[in-house]
Amino acid sequence: MSDLDLPHVLVIYEPAERYPCGTPTQVAQALAAMPEMAVHMARLGEAAARGEILLGGPASGRDGRPQGGMVVFRGLDLAAVAAFVADDPVVREGIERARVCRFEPVLG
Prior knowledge:
Largest sheet: 4 strands, antiparallel
Number of helices: 4
Number of domains: 1
Shape: globular
Oligomer: single chain
Strand content: 25-35%
CATH architecture: 2-Layer Sandwich
Radius of gyration: 14 Å
CATH superfamily: Dimeric alpha+beta barrel
Structural class: alpha+beta
């Protein structure tokens, strides 16, 4: 069975009410200082170590300013990923909002 045969779920994180403002450097520093972001990254790291994440990372605009990120989960169903995201402190605390949707890779 290849990765393409497994279920995939895409999570798109976008700035929410508590997302910091400022220059790209200020935003990156503010995010790095947030305890919620440290927990967010630790949880994603644990999921990646279990093989549940195909890829993920931050996104930025043309000006270099961070604008959230995305994660592609593999081998988990939509409900499991939605529960994972609902328990994410950056989502719970209004730093980022997340869209969770099925993803059907056709290349790769």
